[in-house]
Backbone:
């Protein structure tokens, strides 16, 4: 079975400007590219799991999101880096017009994680999840993964008591997470 690094998208690998859906709005978080490189080199499947209620809200379409993710894949390829798979949840409980959007996919639901695990033969016990909201980390706890909390503009709204109760560490960026996992990790931040 494979080990994986599950990653939230907005606020974890790219700067969360709210409803990011074009390449022009994409800016890597500090340390993200180096961290992806470390994951690639250490045989982690990299799986992005992102709530995209902007689709249910009709601010943008699934095609926009697919196009953005393809563009990111191409940018990574230029640097010999690769994300293994992308999952997004279009659903929003108040805005859905499309009954095909699976509510269980929207984090804190575990739907996206379970689909990825099945497709990529992932062992949750050996896997990690990083995100900037509790809704990212609750499914990780439920599935037996090790979660990491990333500080972002949403930090003030997150329940620190819950993080403490589950003994979850907080980090300024994903690069700091890797530095904790691997003391030999060199950070020449890209
Ligand atoms: Mg986020």
Residues:
């Amino acid at each position: 079975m494979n080990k994986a690094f599950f990653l939230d998208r907005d606020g974890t690998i790219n700067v969360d400007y709210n409803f990011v859906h074009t390449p022009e709005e994409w800016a890597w978080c500090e340390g993200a590219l180096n961290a992806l490189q470390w994951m690639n080199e250490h045989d982690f499947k990299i799986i992005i799991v992102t709530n995209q209620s902007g689709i249910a809200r009709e601010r943008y379409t699934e095609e926009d999101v697919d196009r953005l993710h393809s563009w990111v894949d191409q940018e990574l390829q230029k640097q010999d880096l690769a994300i293994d798979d992308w999952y997004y949840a279009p659903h929003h409980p108040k805005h859905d017009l499309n009954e095909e959007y699976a509510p269980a996919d929207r984090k804190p639901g575990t739907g996206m994680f379970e689909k990825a695990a099945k497709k990529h033969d992932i062992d949750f016990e050996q896997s990690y999840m990083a995100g900037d909201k509790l809704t990212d980390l609750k499914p990780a706890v439920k599935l037996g993964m090790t979660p990491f909390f990333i500080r972002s503009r949403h930090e003030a709204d997150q329940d620190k008591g819950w993080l403490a109760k589950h003994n979850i560490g907080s980090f300024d960026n994903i690069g700091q997470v890797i530095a904790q996992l691997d003391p030999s990790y060199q950070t020449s931040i890209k």
